[in-house]
Amino acid sequence: MTDSVNRRPIRAVAFDLDGTLVDSAADLMHASNALLAELGRPPVDLPAVRSFIGDGAPKLVERVLAATGGIPAADEAARCLQRFLAIYEADPSAHSALYPGVAETLGGLAEAGLRLGVCTNKPMGATLRLLDDLGIAGRFAAVVGGDSYPTRKPSPEPVLGLLERLEVDPGETVFVGDNEHDVAAARAAGVARVLLVPYGYARVPLDGLPHDGILAGFADLPGRLSC
């Protein structure tokens, strides 16, 4: 698959996870509310949790705590984060599901010989368990989590780390995500193109981001790789 006669062939596609491949908000809400119940705080609802997703578990927990009574002192906040991770990582897929067309499209891309990878701000343990539980772990040649490198998206570091593991250059790669951090990280990494899904957990309007296109749906992706 090629972009045009003037561009290098696309050899790899890198994906964000939450809001791009998987709708995971319900499981994040359940884990958040289990933590809040232990703290004697009120629960958060699904729209609130959707707005908290995208910056990794530390920021998610920080936002949950801020919305339900305030952020505690640093040592207690750290304990809350560890407790949240213990709850969430024990079963991160009970209420999560692949978005329509994801499984079939990934299969087609892999069969076409493209190298596929995941770059997410979710912790690696939960990421691998979720991919396995949802039956798509085998589609990816490399996976990078929010704790794989010192920085997370919007830093380009995890994207570049993923591409190194995939053994491809940025100019041979398309990045597919759902929010502003995906665009910023992928652009800074120098990938050939950045495509966005029309659903997901973006906190800013997609039209205002410097992307290369918004997919009609996930199944639209193969056709957008060759144009």
Automatic annotation (TrEMBL):
A molecular function (GO) term: phosphoglycolate phosphatase activity
Catalysed reactions listed for this entry: 2-phosphoglycolate + H2O = glycolate + phosphate
Cellular component annotations (GO), alphabetically ordered: cytosol
Active-site residues, record numbering mapped to chain: D16 (nucleophile)
Organism encoding this protein: Azospirillum doebereinerae
Gene name per UniProt: gph
Pfam families registered for this protein in UniProt: HAD_2
Keywords associated with the record: Carbohydrate metabolism, Hydrolase, Magnesium, Metal-binding
Pathway(s) the chain acts in: Organic acid metabolism; glycolate biosynthesis; glycolate from 2-phosphoglycolate: step 1/1
Function: Specifically catalyzes the dephosphorylation of 2-phosphoglycolate. Is involved in the dissimilation of the intracellular 2-phosphoglycolate formed during the DNA repair of 3'-phosphoglycolate ends, a major class of DNA lesions induced by oxidative stress.
Assigned EC number: 3.1.3.18
Positions annotated to bind Mg(2+): D16, D18, D178
Cofactor section: Mg(2+)
Name by which UniProt lists this protein: Phosphoglycolate phosphatase
One GO term (biological process): glycolate biosynthetic process
Family stated for the protein in its record: Belongs to the HAD-like hydrolase superfamily. CbbY/CbbZ/Gph/YieH family.
